Amino acid sequence: MNVPSGLKYSNEHEWVKLDSDIATVGITDYAQSQLGDIVFVDIQTEGETLAQGEEFGAIEAVKTVAGAFMPISGEIVEVNLSLESNPEAVNIDPYGEGWLIRIKAADLSELDNLMDAEQYLAYIS
Predict the structure, then answer these.
(1) How does pLDDT run across 7-42, given as a tens digit for each residue?
(2) pLDDT tens profile 72-115
(3) Contact status, residue 75 vs residue 104, Cβ threshold 8 Å
(4) In Å, how far are 10, 34, 69, 79 from 40, measured between CA atoms?
(5) What is the domain-level CATH number for residue 59?
(6) Measured between alpha carbons, how far is 60 from 91 in angstroms, rounded to an integer?
(7) Does some domain include residue 57?
(8) How many CA atoms lie within 13 A of 34 on its CB side?
């Protein structure tokens, strides 16, 4: 299971990479493997400000639909539009081309509520 260091991880299997006050968010390799083949990513929350733990979108796989949750609070400033035509990027490259949203972080201290790679590996084991 690919769990890169340098990212933060939520209990809901989202990852966060912070660059200044902009956080890129996606789902983990573990999450995409549990979902199976992803066929649609539905994120209608661009421009909205959501709290940590709130649902920002949905990820549809062949046999299920899963919610995607805010790992930290903030305004969704960008949605990965390439996923509209290429949702399988989430399966192929969940930490790269398969990112979901970018957030203007509201409270960076919320990152302290998340796990590092070692803690996340223990969580999914």
Answers:
(1) 999 999 999 999 998 999 999 999 999 999 999 999
(2) 999 999 999 999 999 999 999 999 999 999 999 999 999 999 99
(3) yes
(4) 22, 15, 16, 14
(5) 2.40.50.100
(6) 12
(7) yes
(8) 12
* pLDDT on residue 1: 84
CA dihedral of residues 106, 112, 117, 120 (deg, nearest 10)? -100
Q: How far apart are CA 32 and CA 21, in angstroms?
A: 26
Residue 125 lies in a domain: no
Q: Which residue bears the tokens 């290429």? A: 86
C-alpha to C-alpha distance for 125 and 33, rounded to whole angstroms: 14
Alpha-carbon distance of 4 to 89, in angstroms, equals: 17
Which residue range(s) make up the domain with 50?
8-106
On whether the CB atoms of residues 56 and 3 are closer than 8 A, the answer is: no
